[in-house]
Write the structure tokens for this entry.
Amino acid sequence: MDIKGLLFDKDGTLLEFHQMWLKVSQGVVTALSHRYRTEMQMHLLTEEHLLEAIGIHGEYVDNHGLLAANPVEDTAEAWFKMLTPSCELVAFTTQVKALFNQQVEDNPSLIQPLPGVKATLIKLKQKGFRLGIATADTKDSTIYSLEKAGLIGLFDYLGYSDGDIAPKPAPALLQGFCERCDLTPAQVVMFGDTVSDMAFGLNAGAGKVGVLTGTATQDELAPHADFILASVADFEPECLAR
């Protein structure tokens, strides 16, 4: 069956991940530690403890950590268990989401498309492919980031994780792409930089292309991807013959 739809993870696949999300996460944790100073002291927590809980170890981001692969709800739940604040989890999650969204908007210069990606997306669009996004990021942050990167007009579908749809690796976002663009999963290829992205493609019945512009290495992606590219910018439709 011919491939007609190309679905992309956002950060680490289309946009630069490391500097952006390290800076954003550090800003969120600093704000959170000030807001919950008493709880931090009570549980002998440091900002490093909160960062490590989501997979940030100094300048290294764990490919299997919450920041790299999970929605903000999971990060909020992990921090909620550590801080045990007096508010409910739902309220705490809302606070954490707002802090992440604010940090993204406070750092627009860090929102950068990866080299060559925009030109490649334009060519694929011109060739008639339907293009979509499937990200663990929130709606507000997704739209803001894609607008700042000058990419948002290229996509037929924006799938994000904002608590109202099962996040990756559950297949719901890819199913939404198929419904929006009148496709079947077998007509779709998923591009991503994490093992979770590859599991997402597998669970949905789509093809899987790993890219090395994000958090996972070649060795981590190889057992799970149909094939691996250095970058989305290297993709040509002829690759699909593999």
Q: What stands out?
A: Strands lie at 5-8, 56-57, 60-61, 130-134, 157-159, 188-192, 207-211, 227-229. The two ends are 13 Å apart (CA to CA). The longest strand covers residues 130-134. Residues 18-35 form the longest helix (18 residues).
